[in-house]
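User: Here's a chain of 94 residues. Predict its fold as tokens.
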Amino acid sequence: MNKKLSEREKLMAYVLNKEFRYPQNAIANLMSTKHDGGISQPSIANAIKEAGYLIQIKKLKDMYLDVKKELEQDGFIPSPNLLENRRNIISFDE
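Assistant: Prediction complete.
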């Protein structure tokens, strides 16, 4: 049976491994008690990798929003053509 870890559990695994230096098999054992013994070490390895990506995405989104705010404060506004085609543009605001 496939036991799916929540984003929070993936982040917990990331912190336990990267910050607290727990080995992946120890984290798998800890998580298995909550999931009735169904979490493997490779699942934890994948969860740690995914959490790292989530953290990078969050940092990039925050940086994007900071730059956008700074540009708006400096008086930059979207061009009229951009406003017309906005629905075709990928936005981090959503």
